[in-house]
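ARCHIVE CARD
SHELF: 3
SLOT: left
DATA:
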Amino acid sequence: MEIKWTSFARVDTVSEEILTSMKAAGCSAVSFGVESGNAQILQTINKGITRDQVIAAVEMCRRTGVTAHASFILGLPGETPQSIRETMDFGEQLKELGLSYGFHLLAPFPGTEIRTNSDQYGIKILTDDWSQYHANRAVVETSEVDRQSLDDIVIGWEDEYTLLLGDIKERMLKNTASDQEAEQVNNLERIVLVYDLIMKNVIEQIGSWRHNGQSLSTRANLKILSEKVNSAVDATPQLINDTLDHARRHGDLQCRNDGEMIEWQWVDHIGMTNDD
């Protein structure tokens, strides 16, 4: 089956043999949660990996032709300006080996050890507004790193990434961007739009209507939905239609017709059983 797919993995569980098989089966990229470039922080959070294992995993990806990605979390217990610099330098070292990386910020949800024992870990929790727990802006501080410092780093990285995407978009218009670059931009735009739709409950609010006895195809009903969504979000009609159609084709959005009402719904894959 000629299907392209990506994967998440730990750096201490991949091998060259596994990556070779994954590549042969259509895997184009693997994402690793590295979290920090500081050995002491990795030990404190019980990550169970070393910097050497990270480097080895990235090198194996390069040799097997699988693109390696990594995410780092800033604001972890024991974070200091020096440990942040160490993490950023480590990211640049890995980038030279062919890895791309990005930053998120610690978001200690209820039930996690780090939230339960935040005082013990030296973490100051700044808010219980769960809408802010998206890991892109600081909701914690450490004794040596404040919220603004953490936000500045992530915003700077976002700005750099935005410039990169802008460059790719310009080359897409000139037909000089690679297929992989174009798909990266298209996929990101779809993800951002879906996130916006979910956070604003757009589909739940405007995704239902009476069809007055008309028997329309799913594609026709999707066009109606796209027109409704167009007035609720800031996106081009083409992006809206492509995103909704992509979600439908991948089983993330479904249309129900009970004979009177058309109802579009997001599919809760986690809640599904084998009988579904």
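SLOT: right
DATA:
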Amino acid sequence: MKSFKASLFAAAAALTMLASGAADAQTEVKIGYALAENSHYGVAAKAWAESVEQATNGTLKFRQFPSSALGGERETVEGLQLGTIEAVIVSTGTLSNFVPAVGVTDIPFLFRDLKHARDVLDGPIGQEILTQFDERGMVALAWGEQGFRHITNNRHPINTPADLAGLKLRTMENPVHITAFTTLGAAPTPMAWPEVIGALQQGTIDGQENPLSVIVSANLHEVQKFLTLSGHVYSPAMLLVSKAFFDKLSDAEKAAMREGAAKGVTAMRGFVDDVEKTGVETLKERGMQINELSVEQKAAFQSSLQAAYQQYYDKYGKELVDSIIAAE
């Protein structure tokens, strides 16, 4: 009997060790992002997670935290640096406070169209910027995308720079955006995304600026009356992981993370392409009053931004800015 009990104990212990080993073999990847799961961020996170989990046979298991569940974008980026969050999808507006070179992509009227922007970011210029994240405790796996930014507000349509005078516009914590709107006469108000809807409802701010992908998925028609299709800034995003987390992965797991991020970007850009085609009609149906700046009207805005451009040249180098503009 004693021998039988000893055998049972040994078997139970072995099963416990096996179960513990299986648990240890699976690593949780917490991924945070500001928008809802049905947004372009959510689509990218889903594609990224599915690819990695399949490639690693589930040893890396993603756990999603959409809608700023882990905090605002600044907080999640700081979480990456601390190693308390493994992955994020985040706008570049916040990232320029951590890696200043990212800010060059936010210069108004820098990119001609989506193809131009994608070619630059996927090419040598964009890839060199990605390498600068390592020294800040992060690994930048890929450039994501939001699309071109447009202005919404509750006061009136925007047709000329004068229409921005005194307008309290929520911006990201992005010095490039703040400089541009200050130069144009607006009152830029940096604010974390989770606070924006409430501030618009209460009238603390008059409006905000974001791509159609955000305007549609965040249901901004519920708190904003006017949409001006200004296309003033192309808005990238980034798929980042914690360097402390990444450095512990095997070579195969690192490759899976990179490949998964690339698939996330493909899904994200597909979402943006779709919204660019259908978003305006969707917002019209939801009651927004929409106007689009003509080529001549955009030229007037560009002319009004010459003082800001001189600051951008001083900060990022005229050669870099000009090389982006000239890229084919």
